[in-house]
Amino acid sequence: MSASTDSFPVRRIMALYLMTGLALVVLLMVVGLLMRMSQAGWIRLTSVDFYALMTLHGAGMIAALVLCGMGGLWYLIRREVAMSASLALWAYGLAVGGVVLVAAAAAFGKFGAAWTFLYPLPFLNPTWPAWSIGAFLVGMTLIVLGWSVWCIQMLEAVLRGFGGFRGVLGWDAVFTPKAFAASGRKLPPPQVLPAFVIALDGLLAAAAASLLGVALLVHWLDPSVPLDALWAKNITYFFGHDLANFIIYMLIAQVYVGLPAYARRPWKNTRVLTLGWWGTLVFLLLAFPHHLYMDFAQPVWIQYLGLGASYVSSIPVAVVTVFGGLLLVWRSGMRWGLGSIFMYAGMAGWILGGIGALLDATIQFNLHLHNTLWVPAHFHTYLLGASFLFAIGWVFAMLEGRSENPTSSAMRWTIGVTVLGGIGLLVATFYLAGAASVPRRYDVEPAPGPVFAGWGSVGAIILLIGLAVAFFEGMRIWRGLKQARTHVEWPWSPEPATQTARSGGGAR
Amino acid sequence: MTGSRRFAAGTIALVLIGYVSIVVAWLHLGLPSPDHSIKDHHLQHLFFLIGGGLWGIALARWLARRHPHGQQSAWLAPALLAPMAAMFLMWPSAYPYVESRPFLHASMHLVFVGLGALTTFAGYRYTRVVSWLLGGSLAVMAWLAAFFFGVTPQPDPAVEAIINARPVAPATASAHGQKVFDQICASCHMPTGAGLPGAFPPLAGHLPELLAAGGRDYVKQVVLYGLQGAITVGGQTYNSVMPPWQQLSDQEIADALNYAATAWGNALPAGESSFEASEIAAARGQGLNAQQVHDARERVGLP
């Protein structure tokens, strides 16, 4: 049942996902910098170019970070359970093909309806050609198809490998803990929880997205077919909100495995952690209505459902995970490499971004904050200050875990200060501008927006410089690995899952 | 109950429930006539999909029993594409055409059954749990489609009441013009016509200024062809792009301009008459771009 661990082709598939995703992220950071510089008045983008770049930046960043999460989590589960490499490559190909079409729609067609492409906006603005609408919609549909393939493969694997729904959910450990402990069985490793939650919820979200994609394509081909805009918006955010959240939940699995390598202690799954993930499993899909508080035609009970679900889906798992992370480090003799620094800082970003998100998900705050830069502030904290840090932290964990030439202290400080400082300055300007009621999605911002945009641009430049230094440091470590021609084993590996794998009936 | 009997009972139950679903779809809603709503049609097709889906699982179970197979990844392609094909088949504007051809209509229903069956059968060839999840997802997709795909939203009395409770238009401005302005123009120029300093220029005070300077044709061109390039209004420079609004009717543009020219303290300058739909129609077809409209502004003599 248990697969061979960490074989070279498996690592290459993960590297394919991660390198593609991270390269896209850095490229799109430059796009984001151009947008902020234009808002600051340093350069001048036309409105058409600005909104095309905003669409490219938004859709591309989501897809790029999803790729990072898909590759990393696929690798972690593949270490435990046999999975088809060809299916993983199909999922990758479909997703990357979709990204190419989306990029073409934005770059050549100036499609500028934002990554949310809320109906009927894509069809109303005559500044982009009809083909760009089709290319964008087909591209998003391909991304959804690739995502669906990944979810199905992941779901089947964790159910097969860890005792079916009952085993993965830790049912016996939660409801009959004494009998469970007496039986000698163990809960699955912690990375299995996000894999299961994301695969199951992701498949349901993808079904809704497929329907929306078909409906929009039909409307594009036949404008006489109307769509109910409120329903379309609900479905859009049912998928879009969930996909954006899946990113951090996928990448936290890499922290569950990566940080213990530096602390030399396992990150154990517990009943409390399992229950936290239960909350995410059930309520993550119900949190999206907080994007529609301003839509007064939406039934009020759905708004309150969104409010409650936003809290229950995020707080328990974040608190338990961060508390677990603190305990992991406490008196562990932690080895602070670039990987552990980035992953630990990412957990702080998760909390900060989460607080910003929960404020926005609270109706009375939302009325004041939702149309301001507060929203980009929280999701940049979440995606850049947490998810992206988890991803590059994982890359460095993979490199440092096998290297005998560690990064010097001065280099660690240089990279840490520039990357984290750049991110901090960038997101701080978003928060301050949001608190000052600077509206979001404006290519030309009213005062004091341009001032904050200028400082945000400085932060982005510092971040890019730090990432360039980190890239060369990563290359130095990698070249050292190749020249040494030694294979230093990963310092700590999660326990084989064979005990739990046989504890239940499995999925088949 | 032995394993074989349990298997047989389960398979027969799937077939029977699938059959009942299809019969319900066919009879409960009746053979669709043209007065059936699109929502009814979508819901009817939902039952066809459920019925076919259950048959697909039953068939896959039976075949797997006779010819055991491993995990067959290639079947994921039809398992994922069949639901999308089913949604395409629910193309609402094609319903009247299909309904008027009984053979085609019946065939289409059979295709729905087939696509439901293909979804779950193909999913089962990969793994059992996937077939149930995909079948359930297909049913949810068809159910969601019934509420928004080809469906025009019904007016909600509570929402209508909110809309109708908005301030009454000034006596000098047309109600229709205000409605068009609020829907199209107010998001940038603001409902008060004050614009947004640094981002979008004001119309309050500025539109009469344009008309007084002989810019009547320019005003029409801005609406029809958009505007790109720096302008100065009230000492403030603006460099946003205004998109063209040719998709609005001549009457809508004329009414919106008349509203903006007379609201918020604006008044038509002496000698200027209200905008007419006919002159908007005459201004179409000039084939200008937003930059050329900016040039026209300079010719009027405004910065």
Plain-language structure description:
- The complex is a heterodimer of chains A (508) and B (303).
- Helix content of chain A is 73%, strand content 0%.
- Chain A has 18 helices and no strands.
- Chain A has helices at 8-40, 47-78, 85-107, 121-124, 130-161, 164-168, 171-175, 177-182, 192-221, 229-263, 271-283, 300-329, 338-361, 363-369, 374-400, 409-435, 449-484, 498-501.
- In chain A, α2 packs parallel to α5 and α10 runs parallel beside α15.
- The longest helix of chain A is centred in the C-terminal third of the chain and has 36 residues, at 449-484.
- The radius of gyration of chain A is 22 Å and the shape is globular.
- Chain A starts with 7 loop residues before the first helix and ends in a 7-residue tail after the last helix.
- Chain B is mostly helical.
- Chain B has 13 helices and four strands.
- In chain B, a hairpin with a 2-residue loop joins β2 (231-233) and β3.
- In chain B, α1 packs antiparallel against α2 (38-66) and α2 runs antiparallel to α6 (128-148).
- Chain B is elongated and about 95 Å long.
- Chain B starts with a helix and ends with a helix.
- The model of chain B has no long low-confidence stretch (mean pLDDT 84).
- The chains are: A mainly alpha (508), B mainly alpha (303).
- At the A-B interface, α5, α9 and α10 of A face α3 and α6 of B.
Annotate the secondary structure layout.
The complex is a heterodimer of chains A (508) and B (303).
Chain A: H1 8-40, H2 47-78, H3 85-107, H4 121-124, H5 130-161, H6 164-168, H7 171-175, H8 177-182, H9 192-221, H10 229-263, H11 271-283, H12 300-329, H13 338-361, H14 363-369, H15 374-400, H16 409-435, H17 449-484, H18 498-501
Helix pairs in contact in A: 1-2, 1-3, 1-17, 2-3, 2-5, 2-10, 2-15, 3-5, 5-9, 9-10, 9-11, 10-13, 10-15, 11-12, 12-13, 13-15, 13-16, 15-16, 16-17
Chain B: H1 3-28, H2 38-66, H3 76-89, H4 95-99, H5 102-126, H6 128-148, H7 157-164, H8 175-189, H9 206-212, H10 216-225, E1 227-228, E2 231-233, E3 236-238, E4 241-242, H11 250-262, H12 277-283, H13 290-300
Antiparallel strand pairs in B: 1-4, 2-3
Helix pairs in contact in B: 1-2, 2-5, 2-6, 3-5, 3-6, 5-6, 8-11, 10-13, 11-12
